[in-house]
Amino acid sequence: MSADQLADVSVGPSAGFDPHHLRHHGDAEVRGSGAELTDLAVNVRADTPPGWLKARMAAALDGLAAYPDGRAARCAVAARHGAPSARVLLTAGAAEAFVLLARALPVRRPVVVHPQFTEPEAALRDAGHQVERVVLDERDGFRLDPGAVSEEADLVVVGNPTNPTSVLHPADAVAALARPGRTLVVDEAFMDAVPGERESLAGRADVPGLVVLRSLTKTWGLAGLRIGYALAEPDTVAALERAQPLWPVSSLALAAAEACCAAPALAEAARAAETISVDRAHLVARLAEFEEIRVCAPAAGPFLLIRLPNATATRARLRELGFAVRRGDTFPGLGPDWLRLAVRDPATTDRFVTALAKALAEG
């Protein structure tokens, strides 16, 4: 397809959106000289991976001469979600799953619900699909309206909790998007940061066409390792698996997946989710000190979306003051007045708020 054929079919805030922005992610804020900054741009839990996980991966080094065997990790993921292993596909991060879905399934009319993580749309565009956008309304708190999605859509992608809005949609509302003949892709990359993983569909086998994507990179600090998985009907898993290259997930990543699905790791992740909730509340309270800042709430993820005047200039000044934050204008449906902030510990938040106050006063 030509660039013209791939033009947006959306209207409203995302109309005319630069498609090159789809490939901008938070890590761009901390590359090069940005590595010296306090990172509030990337939503990876701080001080990870933990020592016990490093030890498990180090122990796997002795087996690197053998080709990767994903059977044990696949069974561990299946057991973690109470599913048969035939419903599990291990991937090199959730991003690989978006590429597989775009290339392996016979998609005719894909819809991506925005604002959300932009890789699903980028992968669909790269595979030659014309993407329709459903842009959620800021005035409604970016809440999901299943009725806004066309009945003709045969693939729908939605995040839960959604990056960058931090909105947690009710499971029933997300499941209401399912239809016979439609693939419903739910990106749950941050669901393990939600206490009790409430509103998750990962354990559901009664939703037709459901594909749930999970990432192990956020909670466990494994972004550089690339490990995630998809939960779907066995026929869908088989179709995606045929599109993968041989040995798509490394032995170290497989060892990490198995370890992170064990009971002690799940208990640690649950405790981390509770801590994130407390730390997020502290960040919200501190941001409430600024009349000009609007926080998208209620938030459920390990990050916040905020709106403020002159956000571009404020972001630049914050870099000079030692902090990297995520620009919001690369997300369809948002604009230059938006920033995304990763949730950190209270001490880091307090330092950030001091810098933010200085940046705003100077602006």
Overall description:
The chain contains eleven helices and twelve strands. It has 363 residues and is an alpha/beta fold. The strands form two sheets. It has a seven-stranded mixed beta sheet, sandwiched between helices. The chain has a five-stranded mixed beta sheet with strand order 1-11-12-10-9. A hairpin with a 7-residue loop joins β9 and β10 (303-307). The chain starts with 37 loop residues before the first strand and ends with a helix. The model is unreliable at 1-15 (pLDDT under 50).
User: Low-confidence segments, ≥5 residues, pLDDT <50?
Assistant: 1-15
- Could you say which structural class the secondary elements and strand pairing correspond to? alpha/beta
General shape: globular
The amount of beta strand, in percent, is: 5-15%
Q: From N to C, what is the helix and strand string? A: EHHEHEHEEHEEHEHHHEEHEEH
How many whole angstroms does the radius of gyration measure? 20 Å
| Count of individual helical segments | 11
Q: Describe the main β-sheet briefly.
A: 7 strands, mixed
With strands numbered from the N-terminus, the spatial order across the biggest sheet is: 2-8-7-6-5-3-4
N- and C-termini, Cα separation: 44 Å
